[in-house]
Each structure stands twice: as C-alpha cells, then as structure tokens.
Amino acid sequence: MRDTTKHQGLRNQLAATLEAKGIFDTKVLNAVRKIPRHLFIDSSFEEHAYQDKAFPIAADQTISHPYTVAFQSQVLEVQEGDKILEIGTGSGYQTAVLLELKADVYSIERQHELFKKTSNFLPKLGYRPKRFIFGDGYKGLPVQAPFDKIIVTAGAPFVPKALLAQIKVGGRLLIPVGEGEQVMTLFIRKSPKEFEKHELGDFRFVPMLKEKN
C-alpha cells in the first residue's frame, strides 16, 4: 500500500479541481488532499484515481466521483463529534472523509463481499468508524438513534421513513432519491414532526438495495 509524493501532488490537483467546481469547505478539501484514493480502487485504475471519475469496485458497486463525495460532505455541514449514520459503506472512501472531519461514524453495508473487504481495509489505513454493520440500510440503525446526520450513498426509490425518524431535531438527512437518475435531497428536521426539504440537483448512484444478501 504505497503512497508517494506523486500521489500527493495528484491529490492537490484534485482538490483544486473540486474547488473550481464549487467545493468551498476547507475541511472537506483537506480531507481530499489527505486520503489516498488510489488505495480504495482496483490497482488497474490507479493512474486515474485522482481524476473526478467514478470507478467499479467489488459486488457491482462503484466508488463515487470525488465531486459527489465532497459535495455530500459539504452539504452535511459536519461538525467535530457529530454522530453520523452512513448508508452504503462501499469502498470506504466517503467513510474516510467523514472520519477526517472528526465525526463518529456508524456505517451500514448490505453487500457482504464489500462489508468484509472494507471493514478489514479501512482500519489498516487508520480509519476506524464506531461500528461497521452488515445490514439493511432502509431500516437505519435504531439502536444508536438519534443521529446528528444521516448520509445515503446509493440511489433510493423513495425516502425511508425509518431514516427520517432517526434524525435529531436540527439534524440532516442527505439522500439521492429516484430511479435511474436521482435528485440529491436534503431534509433538515425542524421539530419532531416537521422537516424542511431542499432539492440540490441531479446525480447518478447505484441503486439502494433492500434486505441483506
């Protein structure tokens, strides 16, 4: 697992690209500069790891575009010590960004192959969420609720009520909603029964799958 000065230079270039595309949160940009994204993807893609592209990973899933990861992280407005539920661990790159932002992260993955791979891999890089969970993201994690923030990294055909229920008042749920192409949707909980909804543009994610495999 080599990380070189060349990789660091490419990360700096990637952060500059993301800044030019509208990412302004310096903590998010610093996380992009620090995390060795090339280690999160298949070595055959390594030379392209710091382009703003998505790549296939195990179990027919993908690692999202760096812009998408940075955009979601910025919209969440992560504060140090925030308790965050991540739906869709995937490669673990988004998880690593949240951990660089000093959040307490609980991450759910429903693909067993990815769950095993990523839960072994991330600690080797020094990234340790509070918990890795193999389970159904539609159900959230009620035993640890409520959360300050919930981030969904797969396209959901609808907004699961269980996830809305597990956000603190003042907290945020960020979820791509739709089939095929999704609308990035932010819910801010204003009171026990009231949510403010914001639609933040079109994105494309792999579908969010129900039940464990």
Keywords:
6 helices; single chain; about 210 residues; alpha/beta; 7-stranded mixed beta sheet
3D architecture notes:
The mean pLDDT is 93. The two termini are 30 Å apart. Helix 1 runs antiparallel to helix 2 (26-34). The protein has 213 residues and is of the alpha/beta class. The strands form two sheets. Strands 5-4-3-6-7-8-9 form a seven-stranded mixed sheet. The chain has a two-stranded antiparallel sheet with strand order 1-2. It has six helices and nine strands; from the N terminus they run H-H-E-E-H-E-H-E-H-E-E-H-E-E-E. A hairpin with a 5-residue loop joins strand 8 (182-189) and strand 9.
Write a brief caption for the model.
With 213 residues, the chain is of the alpha/beta class. The protein has 6 helices and 9 strands, in the order H-H-E-E-H-E-H-E-H-E-E-H-E-E-E. It has helices spanning 5-20, 26-34, 66-76, 93-100, 112-124, 161-165; strands spanning 55-56, 62-63, 83-87, 104-109, 131-134, 147-152, 167-177, 182-189, 195-203.
Write the layout of secondary structure elements.
Blueprint: H1 5-20, H2 26-34, E1 55-56, E2 62-63, H3 66-76, E3 83-87, H4 93-100, E4 104-109, H5 112-124, E5 131-134, E6 147-152, H6 161-165, E7 167-177, E8 182-189, E9 195-203
Parallel strand pairs: 3-4, 3-6, 4-5, 6-7
Antiparallel strand pairs: 1-2, 7-8, 8-9
Helix pairs in contact: 1-2
